[in-house]
Amino acid sequence: MKPHPDKDRMDALMPAIREFQALALRHGINDIFQDNGGKLLQVILTLGLTVLPGREGNDARDELGLEYELKSVNLDLTKNFSTHHHLNPVILAKYRQVDWVFALYRGIELIAVYRMKPWQLEPWFAKQESKWHSDGGRDINNPKIPVGYVLEHGQLLAGCDPEIRFRASKMVPVMPVLDPFRADND
């Protein structure tokens, strides 16, 4: 076998790729080519977040100590965010505790970043929890969150509206009403 003619071009790009990887390592990302490492770096630097170590638990933390679940999607490939390969009530309970950050890409270009509060995702959480129970307690394999739902109900943090067409969701989040005069245990 002989090398492809583009190998010389790839070799010429390697110093910049190594520099990108070194930057990622400084931010706790071991491999820019695994688990969306390069995209994760882009999002955390854009939002000023810190990567949380390990593959279990939440993905990032802000300067106030608040933790976030991060998701990304390449709009050239799909219009849904992947979630968890074994979704169940334990994972849903964890998901209900933190804000979510959704990064929308076209290829490797970051187009927009949205944030959603747990209450905004509660209709989706409730739907998945109901499905889990109706399926006899079997974990759900990677249910998707539609990009359209995020665009409808999320807060744009960075970038611009990706201007994609989507069908309006039937899920409607209900903002909780807090009564400052009511005791916490009521």
UniProtKB/TrEMBL annotation:
Keywords: Endonuclease, Hydrolase, Nuclease. Pfam families: Endonuc-PvuII (PF09225). One of its GO terms (molecular function) is endonuclease activity. InterPro entries: PvuII_sf, Restrct_endonuc-II-like, Restrct_endonuc_II_PvuII. It comes from Sphingomonas hengshuiensis. Gene3D superfamilies: PVUII Endonuclease, subunit A (3.40.210.10). This is Restriction endonuclease. Transmembrane segments: none annotated.
